[in-house]
Amino acid sequence: MAEPSGTGPNRRHATLAIIGLPNAGKSTLLNALLGQKLAATSQIPQTTRTKVLGVMDRGEVQLAFLDTPGIHLPKHALNERMMAHVDQALEEADMLLWVVDADDYLGTGEHALAKRLRKLGRPTYLLLNKIDLLSKGRLLEKIATYKDLLPFKEIVPIGAKMGLNLDPLWTILERDATQPGWPYGEEVFTDQTERSLASEFIREKVLRKTREEVPHGVAVLIEQWLEAGQEDYPEDLGPEGVFIAARILVDRDGHRKILLGSGGEMIKDIRQSAQRELKKLLQRPVRLELFVKVDEGWRDRPERLDRLSI
Ligand SMILES: Nc1nc2c(ncn2[C@@H]2O[C@H](COP(=O)(O)OP(=O)(O)OP(=O)(O)O)[C@@H](O)[C@H]2O)c(=O)[nH]1
């Protein structure tokens, strides 16, 4: 019989913050480690806006990963809150996974983060990501460039997108997770609800299909979530289905026009691909409706950010 969580004599755990600059591949890594998509990813920097917990139990070891927003200088209240999530994760974690884009150069952002981490003094693992884009020679050069930045516990080259070299990473993390007991029950996988995942996956589709300034000013609010038996539920969706209506907030009217596209083509495309993804996520029939609303300056309004749980 399985033992209740936290009581096995050899059970141990670690809380690991996945940190780094925007676009390094942190959320892609979280999804790869969990073997399931939990966090939105895109080539737009600042995709992740909050802290996302993903828990993996591996034998006696429980690893609680905290994905975090990419570290940047905040321009809006939204970005200040994003950076507060990073602060919180750094506070909670007992080990840090610093993900860098090994295909990019080591710049002032990395130096600033190294300085901060030096002060913090937590065991830090440098994950040189996107090794699929580098030759062996360049990778060795990168290791040499980074190795003296901090006294890293380990430097591990990985390819989060293709799942490259994750086995050695697991081995290291399991070896070094030494906190006693398990903080989460065996049934806990994440702190995200189906609704929060749904709104993130819709936003991801918007980010992937629009460009320039639009993605940074977009937020998604789930307005309706109806199941069979509830008033207004479309019965033709069947007894297992879910009807979701979501509002996409944009910062200005020009962005609304881009999002709608000519003849509504863009929003139709976003709706269809988000609906497909939500069916996979929820494992049931889904009907999604999307509305676009201009909400100028929402990124600086605390009550709006509260409503969005950012
Ligand atoms: N070639 C390659 N691309 C990768 C790899 N890992 C991530 N990417 C890509 O890098 C981009 C950024 O990935 P994300 O996981 O969204 O990055 P992030 O660090 O979470 O970004 P923020 O939310 O901005 O902090 C996406 O286009 C990913 O597909 C990798 O191993 N190889």
Automatic annotation (TrEMBL):
It is found in: Cytoplasm; Cell membrane. InterPro entries: G_ERA_dom, GTP-bd, GTPase_Era-like, KH_dom-like_a/b, KH_dom_type_2, KH_sf_prok-type, P-loop_NTPase, Small_GTP-bd. It is a peripheral membrane protein. It holds the Pfam family MMR_HSR1. Keywords: Cell membrane, Cytoplasm, GTP-binding, Membrane, Nucleotide-binding, Ribosome biogenesis, RNA-binding, rRNA-binding. Residues 46-50 are annotated as: G2. GTP binds at residues 20-27, 67-71, 129-132. Residues 129-132 are annotated as: G4. Residues 158-160 are annotated as: G5. Residues 12-181 form the Era-type G domain. Residues 67-70 are annotated as: G3. Residues 20-27 are annotated as: G1. Monomer. Belongs to the TRAFAC class TrmE-Era-EngA-EngB-Septin-like GTPase superfamily. Era GTPase family. An essential GTPase that binds both GDP and GTP, with rapid nucleotide exchange. Plays a role in 16S rRNA processing and 30S ribosomal subunit biogenesis and possibly also in cell cycle regulation and energy metabolism. This is GTPase Era. The gene is era.
